[in-house]
Amino acid sequence: CGVFGIYAPGEDVAKLTYFGLYALQHRGQESAGIATFAREKVYLHKEMGLVSQVFNESILQELPGDIAVGHTRYSTTGSSRVVNAQPAVVATRLGSLALAHNGNLVNTVQLREELQKAHCNLVTTTDSELVALAIADEVDSGKAWLEGAIAAFQRCQGAFSLVIGTPAGVMGVRDPNGIRPLVIGTLADNPQRYVLASETCGLDIIGADYLRDVEPGELVWITEAGLASFHWAQQPQRKLCIFEMIYFARPDSVMHSESLYTYRLRLGRQLAQESPVEADIVIGVPDSGIPAAIGFAQASGIPYAEGLIKNRYVGRTFIQPTQTMRESGLRMKLNPLKDVLAGKKIVIVDDSIVRGTTSRKLVRTLRDAGATEVHMRVSSPPVTHPCFYGIDTDSQDQLIAATKSVAEIAAQIEVDSLAYLSQEGMLKVTQEDTNTFCTACFNGDYPIPVPELVKRSKLM
Ligand code: 5GP
Ligand code: SF4
Ligand code: MG
Questions:
Q1: 439 C-alpha to center of ligand 3: Å?
Q2: Strand 67-73 and strand 31-38: pairing?
Q3: Which of 47, 153, 241, 398 has the smallest CB count inside 10 Å?
Q4: Which CATH superfamily groups domain 2-237?
Q5: From ligand 2's centre to the CA of 410, what distance in Å?
């Protein structure tokens, strides 16, 4: 999901949030929502669909105030319905709160039971609503906003980057492992005013300047008084989702002081060094495989070419909830350039193979277009374990690399050769401390313990 928040009296906060969400659209295309606060009153609009479908000028004009929180949804828990759209708005003793969540809790069963005992009315089915209700529960037992929120976060286990609006200010929070990203910016013409966004591309679009990341286990509280920081977690550690860097975040977003485009170029170069192949051209799978394909071409000396043209108006295939939708989505999406491909030995680079359905279709497409050899190179290691922290990599039995060897996968997707990047290579080219990432979907080393019951739902 994508989250955005702003505190800026005198600015059109709904419109700034709209643009922020527009830049974060790739993080979720199922629903979009904005909540604003004008004095004590909360205004909310959320619907199924893309940001551009959900909002227009007149809807934005009905979202007044100084504070706004926005969300684009990619569902990993709860069904794909408008009741599950966010922000989740909940009433408390101190007024309403509006919560936008990116990530996934692993202790929802327990949290739900606790909240049901406290007589909370559980309307929707998402873990995000549970967090909002947990805060309301704490606030209604007499705590102030900050105290109440921190007490609630201590009851949550899992991945959560949150932006929470209240009548008093906006909070930005990351879980103690910092699995999902969250950055702080300041408005260019008013550096006293702060913005929160999942990625820096959400700041760039409104001309805000990047200040810093919210730290793992940190809460920032943005009010009239400015920005205050609280480190609320006992043992924070850095475990950023490596898939954010490989695939999920936009290539123009900055993490660790460089664009992800640059990181993905290095992934491709490393891949070429590890698994060279003789070929005429290197192509990438648009859009996410392109930077690594360019890196592969640079390191191998094989010319880079565009071999597949993407219809930019079709959403990410992976994110659509059903298999049938996924398959028809893919047919709509990529068209081969026959005159580039015909008679050529091709290296095709993609960022990941999850189920393998994308790759098999693409390989057939390339052969139909006249490719004589198709060699696939993947700029991440085999995905062998499901994600419990907010990326929808499905249950383990859906993951092709969980049950098949590289040779078996090569046969199934019908390539002449197949190679994946090594885990060492992936981590080495981050140029960061290799312990500061979650890599569980490649090695099953889950940084946040996953309760047995939850594990069983996705593991074989
Ligand atoms: P599959 O192997 O499941 O058919 O699809 C892999 C492709 O889906 C890759 O091109 C990758 O860019 C794309 N993709 C879309 N969403 C996701 C996601 O959430 N995680 C991963 N790893 N890949 C995704
Ligand atoms: Fe990211 Fe994989 Fe960890 Fe999930 S399991 S948070 S996708 S690295
Ligand atoms: Mg892709």
A1: 19
A2: antiparallel
A3: 47
A4: Aminohydrolase, N-terminal nucleophile (Ntn) domain (3.60.20.10)
A5: 24
Q: Tell me, which fold does domain 262-458 have in CATH?
A: Rossmann fold (3.40.50)
1 a catalytic residue: yes
Q: How far is the CA of 447 from the centre of ligand 2 (A)?
A: 10
Strand partners, 255: 258
CA-nearest residue for atom 1, ligand 2, is 241
Instruction: Note the pLDDT tens digit of each residue in 167-181.
Output: 999 999 999 999 999
The pLDDT tens digits for 279-288 are 999 999 999 9
Specify the ligand 2 atom closest to the Cα of 391: 7
How far is the C-alpha of 327 from the C-alpha of 355, rounded, in Å?
Answer: 12
Which residue's C-alpha comes closest to atom 23 of ligand 1?
352
pLDDT digits (tens, 9 = 90+) for 75-85: 766 677 788 89
Backbone φ and ψ of 388, nearest 5°: -110, 5
75, 352, 353, 359: residue to mutate for ligand 1 pocket, most atoms within 8 A of CB: 352
Residue with tokens 């994110």: 319
Q: How many beta carbons lie within 10 A of that of residue 15, not counting itself?
A: 17
What is the rounded CA–CA span in Å between residue 196 and residue 13?
A: 12
Inform me whether the pLDDT recorded for 86 exceeds 70: yes
Ligand 2 contacts CB of residue 106 (under 6 A): no
